[in-house]
Amino acid sequence: MTVSRVLNGRDGVDNETRRRVEDAVKTLGYLPSRVAYSRASRKTSTIGLVLRDIANPFYAILAHAAEAAARKAGYRVLLCNTEGDLRVEREYLEDFVLYGVEGLLLAPASDESRHSVLPLLRRGFPVVLVDNSLPGVDCDVLVTDNVAGAKRLVEHLGALGHRDIAHIGDAEDTFTGRERLQGYRDGLTALGIGYHEGLVFRTVVDQLGGYRAAQQILALNPRPTAIFAVNNMTAVGAMQALRERQLSVPEDIALVCFDDLESLAVLSPFLTVIDQPAAMLGRLGTQLLLERISGKAGARHQRITLQTELTVRLSCGVGLGAPKKQELMAEGSH
């Protein structure tokens, strides 16, 4: 009776008892009965889309494609932005189920997101993970080949003569952060270069995080000749830090990153990137979720890994030891 009063927000329970019950609820991952999912619940033709950072154009493209796919199937999309905050993420997941969404497409904040996802899956609630995987969670997952993409970027830098390559990375408790770091390490190994922890700078993967990490990189002596940024926003922040130091890309330092977006194609110089199919992630993720909702999906969950592409532009130059832009201009004036 006491537990029921707490879970239903009723009076008549002292503060200490209420606190103990709430702590137990969080520890056990319990969902109140009003949040429990049932196949007999009313059809709302609505799905929830929960993303880490809607300010990141990658997620904006993903969301646009997901909405288009849902609308084509007669579904609406409710969108929420967690900013990578686990508490906010948990609240949104619970609220979405309360509001009657029929399934969730989730880009998890971190590995700890599993504590919010597992209770839903135990009740049979359809969840599809996109862009990030969660350890110990058995559900449909749609990701890109982060390891191969990161390795290819590093190998490209190595082919141009770079040996001191710094990495601006995501936190260790994220799937993409670990995978891209592994690809960075694999690329170094393929080039016969040793891995140095002092060249890896983990940060919040937004523009400010990239800016701060680049400042740390530029303070190194000797300074690395190239930077591999974990995503588009950190690359933009890194470019800002380089410009403040009046350093030219690629003449003074090379810069590459994951994610190919229009904003990167108009930067000067155009950035060399690993292009991952954001729109396809959103579209296929929604299709997987709708199949799971309709019961058309099989008993076994799917894990789909999409391939990436290397897009070579101007931010790496033509190789170390080649004449700098200023030198070429001087030669042309004679």
Largest sheet: 6 strands, parallel
CATH class of the largest domain: Alpha Beta
Please tally the helical runs, counting DSSP H or I stretches of 4 or more residues: 12
CATH architecture of the largest domain: 3-Layer(aba) Sandwich
Q: Would you tell me the structural class of the helices and strands?
A: alpha/beta
Helical percent range?
A: 40-55%
Report strand order across the widest sheet: 2-1-3-4-5-11
Average pLDDT, rounded to a whole number, is 86
Rg result? 23 Å
Structural commentary:
With 334 residues, this protein is α/β, with parallel strands linked by helices. The protein has 2 domains: 42-144 and 280-308, Rossmann fold; 146-276 and 310-320, Rossmann fold (3-Layer(aba) Sandwich). The chain contains 12 helices and 12 strands. It has helices at 2-7, 15-28, 57-72, 86-99, 114-122, 146-159, 175-190, 207-218, 232-244, 262-265, 278-294, 325-332, and strands spanning 46-51, 76-81, 104-106, 127-130, 140-144, 165-169, 200-202, 226-229, 254-258, 272-275, 303-306, 309-311. Strands 2-1-3-4-5-11 form a 6-stranded parallel β-sheet, sandwiched between helices. It has a 6-stranded mixed β-sheet with strand order 7-6-8-9-10-12, sandwiched between helices. Helix 3 packs parallel to helix 11 (278-294), helix 6 packs parallel to helix 7 (175-190) and helix 8 crosses helix 9. The termini are far apart.
Index terms:
elongated; Rossmann fold; disordered C terminus; 6-stranded mixed sheet; single chain; disordered N terminus; 334 residues; alpha/beta
